[in-house]
Amino acid sequence: MAREPGPTVPARRLQAAHTLGPPPGRRRPDSLIADALLTYELADPGGAVSVHYRFIELDRATIPTADLAAKLVRYARLYRHAIPADDPTEPPVPLWTRHYPVFPTVLAVLAHESRDRLERRRQVVLALCRENPELGDGAA
After folding, report:
1. pLDDT tens, residue by residue, 40-68
2. Torsion of CA 61, 67, 73, 75, to 10 degrees
3. How far apart are CA 73 and CA 134, in angstroms?
4. Is 83 within 8 Å of 95 (Cβ atoms)?
5. Any domain includes 29
6. Is the pTM of this model over 0.85?
7. Residues 139, 70, 36, 105: what is their CA dihedral angle, to the nearest 10 degrees?
8. How many structural domains are present in the chain?
9. Any residues with CB less than 8 A from the CB of 42 and at least 6 apart, and which?
């Protein structure tokens, strides 16, 4: 029997943690703790089902914009962070491939301020991300 079109939400995990390599110029490894990881199935009108993964960052405007931008940069580091392959003759593999079949989309949700203040916060965070050399071409 075909599934009805639309999403189903079978799993969510609060505070999904990942260890990253050290940031540029540092020796100690860094970490990224997503506020939540949402995993859901989506059925199309033809009945085909796909699984989607989303990292959720809920920003309640309680931290400085620079800190929020730095956390978003850590998602880019997670995407690029490689670890040795199981087969030593193979090249390193991205760490995230050990946990997810595709890299989860990052959703940053801004809340608890007026629309104008949230828009300004969004603009500042995006500008800070664009200026960050770790993001490279067009990642912001």
Report:
1. 888 888 889 888 999 999 999 999 999 99
2. -60
3. 7
4. yes
5. yes
6. no
7. 0
8. 1
9. 6, 7, 8, 49, 50, 51, 52
